Amino acid sequence: APITHMSGTEGNEAVLQREEVATGRGTIAVPFLSGNAIRHRAVRDPGVRWLIDAYGLRGKLTTMQLNFLLHGGNLTGSTAHESMHVAGDLKRLWPLVKLIGGTLPNQIVPGRLDVWRGSLVCRENAPLVPEVAGTGLRSCIDLVGGYQYTRGDAKGSGIETQEGILEDPSNLMIFAGQAVLRGALFIGGFVVRSSDIVDLGALLWSLREWQRSGCTIGGQGARGHGRLRLQLVDFDDRLQEEACQAYVSHAMQHAEEAVDFLRKAVA
After folding, report:
1. Which residues contact 216 (CB under 8 A, 6 or more apart)?
2. Which of 43, 73, 98, 236 could disulfide-pair with 103, CB 3.0 to 4.6 Å?
3. What is the pLDDT of residues 82-135, one digit of tens each?
4. Looking at the DSSP assignment, which residues form a beta bridge with residue 79?
5. 194-221 pLDDT per residue, tens
């Protein structure tokens, strides 16, 4: 589906997030997917939602605890109380948080996952995508289109209101924006700075959950935008299964201890 990873608006049109790329034709602004957006949408959000369901935590978390899991949390106390023991328990019991990092009330725990930006496969990015650079790439200019929608209005519904039946569908708001066209390809990457297969499994399992939940990124998802199909390149299928099984097994074996830790550490 078309990708609408926006940076803001120009007038009443939403514009794509772009980066300046030096080419033989000068500097050209090329659409891209930020590593931060990929990290949240493809790893943190689906991975955390799976844990919440697996641990039966829906409706049982405080706002602070949910914010810690879904958005990384905030410092609300003194960092004079930092504890290596607490940080160690967090990493042992919550491998996903070990990867993506988090902020407990009184200390920051850095993550161990590096996420590359999603580079659009196009002529301007040819040096960045040597795997496909020799296949007659199109310019990014040819890979960007637009969309336009009209917000609905109760007028014309035929349903009677206090004012009677309104039949004149006037003054409907039109909104538009840019989108990377359907069929475009992005190349990205993940670097797990850990030798623990459970940590690798936390990443791979979260990516699977992202696929199962629709695999979308960017805006206008409710209108069908942003849907991707993920393909892992040059990755051993047997290792992928082994890592996922190791992670799921670890998560379920430590479920009670992990939940107890979260309730005490993020109180």
Report:
1. 1, 41, 225, 226, 227, 228
2. 73
3. 788 999 999 999 999 999 999 999 899 999 999 999 999 999 998 887 777 666
4. none
5. 999 999 999 999 999 999 998 888 877 7
For residues 250 and 98, give the distance between their C-alpha atoms in angstroms, rounded to a whole number.
Answer: 13
Phi/psi for 194 (5° steps) reads: -160, 150
Q: Let me know: does 91 contact 109? Beta carbons within 8 Å.
A: yes
Sign of the dihedral defined by the CA atoms of residues 207, 220, 17, 127, in that order? positive
Q: Of 100, 98, 53, 110, whose CA–CA distance to 198 is shortest?
A: 98
Q: Distance between CA atoms of 221 and 228, rounded to whole angstroms? A: 11
Contact at 8 Å (CB) between 266 and 65? Answer: yes
Rounded-to-integer distance, Cα 61 and Cα 266, Å: 10
